[in-house]
Amino acid sequence: MLVALTVALSAAALALAAWCGFAAYRDQPTKDWHFIGMGVVTVLALAQVVVGVVMLARGEEAEEGTAIFVSYLVGAFLAVPAAGFMSLVERSRWGSAVVAAGGVVLAVLEVRLHDIWTVG
Predict the structure, then answer these.
(1) Helix axes 32-57, 93-118, angle to 10 degrees
(2) N or C: which end of the chain has fewer CB within 10 A?
(3) What is the pLDDT of residues 82-118, one digit of tens each?
(4) DSSP class of 36
């Protein structure tokens, strides 16, 4: 995996989590700007999926297994869009809190993805 992409995605996810967490603190639902931020994070996650698939296609293998790696990769890709969908369903401060939690979950999944790829 590309370490720079993993760090950038983790930082973006944590920034989104802080932003939406602040909105939840201020008793605000997710707004259009939050969804643009979710889109940016999702595009970075899609780039990571592409990089991961290309590396697997080239014959490289994750040290803890390909199935676990692909599962975490798909989960990381879906974390923020799922949280965004839930924030559309819950149009209150709790929608913002769900997106904040989704950003934290994505950052944790990124750390785990890095561990799965490099440390056995």
Answers:
(1) 20
(2) C
(3) 999 999 998 899 999 999 999 999 999 999 999 998 8
(4) H
**Contact (CB, 8 A) for 109 and 70:** no
Among candidate residues 42, 41, 48, 36, the one with its CA nearest the CA of residue 12: 41
What is the distance between the alpha carbons of residues 46 and 19, in angstroms, rounded to a whole number?
A: 21
Q: What tokens were used for 76?
A: 């990381």
What is the pTM (predicted TM-score) of this model? 0.91
Spatial CA neighbour of 48 closest among 116, 101, 96: 116
Cα dihedral across residues 11, 17, 18, 20: positive or negative: positive
Residue 76 near residue 45 (C-beta atoms within 8 A): yes
Instruction: Report how far residue 76's alpha carbon sits from residue 107's, in angstroms, rounded to the nearest whole number.
Output: 9
